[in-house]
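hey m, so remember when u said the tokens were messed up on ur end? i reran from scratch. heres the input so u can diff it against urs
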Amino acid sequence: MSPVSQSRKPGGSAARPPTRDEQAARTREQLSHVDGAALGYRLDPWWWLVAAVACLLVFLIASWPDPYLAILIFVRDGLVVTIVLTLASFVFIIFVGLLGGLGRISKNRVIYVITSLYVEVVRGIPLLVQLMWWYFAAPVVIQGIGVALNITSMAQYRANAIVLAILGLVICYGAYMTEIFRAGIQSIHKGQMEAARSLGMNYLQAMRYVVVPQAMRVVLPPVGNEFIMLMKDTSLVSVVAVADLTRRGREFMAVHFNPIEVWTLIALLYLVMTLFSARVLAWLEKRRGVGGTS
């Protein structure tokens, strides 16, 4: 059959070519059924909330530079510490969570018991208590071990607030991240592992190239949620001599006695950071096709 005869309807008349609007509508309908192909040109409406909070922050600083601008200048180094602390801790938390997740599904009984014990114990202790233990108790333990073993460097150990704060955050959040990765890996069908092994891959290769990449797509939303929670929980390190945003705000308030202005500005700064992070994570989820319909 010739192309001309194919373009005709049963009645013999030529089929009308679809208009541009019809083609666009058909394309949108087809994309709506493709996993991860949500139209990306639409601006997430929640960005307006980020902009509104940022504008409110700018308005307060511009309208009442005393005290809001003075507070911002005073706490800006604490703001940097909070951001660096969050990012540095999160990198190690991902690493610990991935190793812990693999340990939780390991067939090696020793590895499974160790990782399970780590998760159960750490999740049962409040984060603030853990931070205080690492800052106040851990150095004493290290010094005691140094004295017992006659190791001068350990016997004279002095606590580094930022390092121990990162350590406390990583160990605490690593336990929660372990369970997230365990659930993500176990959500991948066993047939994926079997198919990879049938292609000649060993267990580690199958996990690295087949299972874990698929699990990363599954765990992206809860991992993003943990990142936002971590950013807020970094405020707890202010009790262990880390000059973060919260501690710097408390220091300013102790000198100038204006709690309303100080904590309003601190709250808005945290809100801008968390809202912005949430929008970026939502964009990443769309980019990775999380939540699409197939």
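this time it looks ok to me. The chain has twelve helices and no strands. if urs says something different then somethings off w ur setup not the seq
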